[in-house]
Amino acid sequence: MIADIAFLHCNHVPRCVSSVDKRFDYHTVQFMTAGAVELWYGESRTVLEGCYLWPAMPGPHIRFGRAPGCAAWDHRYVAFTGTGVHRLADPGRLLSEPLAVPSARADRVCRVMDDLIEAASDPGELQRMKASTILQRLLLEAAEIRGSTDPAGTSWLEPIVATLERTGGRPDYRRVAAEAGMSLPTLRRRFHAATGVPIHEYHLRSRLAEARRLLAETPLAIKEIAARLGYSDVFYFTRQFSGKTGVSPAVYRASVQSTAARPGKPESS
């Protein structure tokens, strides 16, 4: 169980026709089992059709709703916030990337999601603790699904991810590939297939995830956080953070502190 997670609202709408268009100041996991959704993270558009999990989170302007030609979609979601979000073990990167759920796993994920919605709907402390445990289980289910799409397995991936997440500046990708016994093109191809994102984009997101954690959980100055993450220029760090999240580090910190200071209130999706 992860402490310091507050569940805000959740629902299951079997024939959803609504849409969302906003910047989130909390996290959600969205789940679709039928229909098609048009999803935008900032200017990046994708169409999800069938059974998908995807996140909505602080940072980019997010839009999603019925894809053109779709009458309705089956929609489950749960929304949550708190400093505990940054401590969730998320090996499948569900909180940053959409994930196609194979039909063989759809019923199992449905059961986990329904259990999560039931627990998150109860305001009691015991149910909140149960909900945070189920949320962690959902993330691990997502990790298993993403790993199963790589027929060679993902054991090779773990040391590479560890290297990327502890490297402050730009990694030496040729050296990372050599240590994994691959050529650089092979590493790029296999990494993208296993995680859904290019290797350098993954490294950048890891740095920015750590930046968000430090901004939310520590009093470190922005210049100190930039230096800790391997940035020699705090202004470049600020531009990169703003470009990827849609807000400056200072605004992000103020938003997180403001959210933590006020009680959550029901809100859709």
Description:
The chain has 269 residues and is of the alpha+beta class. It has two domains: 6-148, Regulatory protein AraC (Jelly Rolls), CATH 2.60.120.280; 157-259, Arc Repressor Mutant, subunit A (Orthogonal Bundle). It is 46% helix and 21% strand. The protein contains nine helices and nine strands. The chain has helices spanning 103-121, 125-148, 157-166, 173-179, 184-195, 199-217, 222-228, 234-245, 249-261, and strands spanning 6-16, 20-23, 27-34, 36-41, 44-49, 52-56, 61-66, 73-81, 99-100. The strands form two sheets. It has a five-stranded antiparallel β-sheet with strand order 1-8-3-6-9, with helices on one face. A four-stranded antiparallel β-sheet has the order 2-7-4-5, with no helix packed on it. Strand 4 (36-41) and strand 5 (44-49) form a beta hairpin. Helix 1 (103-121) runs antiparallel to helix 2 and helix 6 crosses helix 9. The longest helix has 24 residues, at 125-148. It is globular and about 50 Å long. The two termini are 24 Å apart. The relative contact order is 0.15. The mean pLDDT is 86.
Output the number of helix runs: 9
Spatial order of strands in the largest sheet: 1-8-3-6-9
Residues in helix, %: 40-55%
Q: What average pLDDT do the residues reach?
A: 86
Put the structure in a nutshell.
With 269 residues, the chain is α+β, with helices and mostly antiparallel strands. The chain has 9 helices and 9 strands. It has helices spanning 103-121, 125-148, 157-166, 173-179, 184-195, 199-217, 222-228, 234-245, 249-261, and strands at 6-16, 20-23, 27-34, 36-41, 44-49, 52-56, 61-66, 73-81, 99-100.
